[in-house]
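Dear colleagues,

As part of the handover before I leave the project, I'm documenting each prediction I ran so the next person doesn't have to rerun anything. This entry is a single chain, and its sequence is reproduced below.
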Amino acid sequence: MRFQDIFVPRWQHSNPEVRIKAVNRMNDKSLLMQIAEKDEDEMVCMAARDRLSEISDERVKVET
């Protein structure tokens, strides 16, 4: 853990595992898309894409 990790949101943490946990709790589509496209760790990108898919599926179920 870096000193700066104390001051940044979890999705910007230096540890990819912490970022994945943060992504799995997010509901902000635009932020998730940004993470999916730009994060340096492929597993974090994949987690963001999966979360986006979950959010989309939840909204479809609620609307029907």
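The CA atoms of residues 36 and 64 lie 28 Å apart. The helical segments are 16-23, 29-38, 42-63.

All the best with the project,
I.
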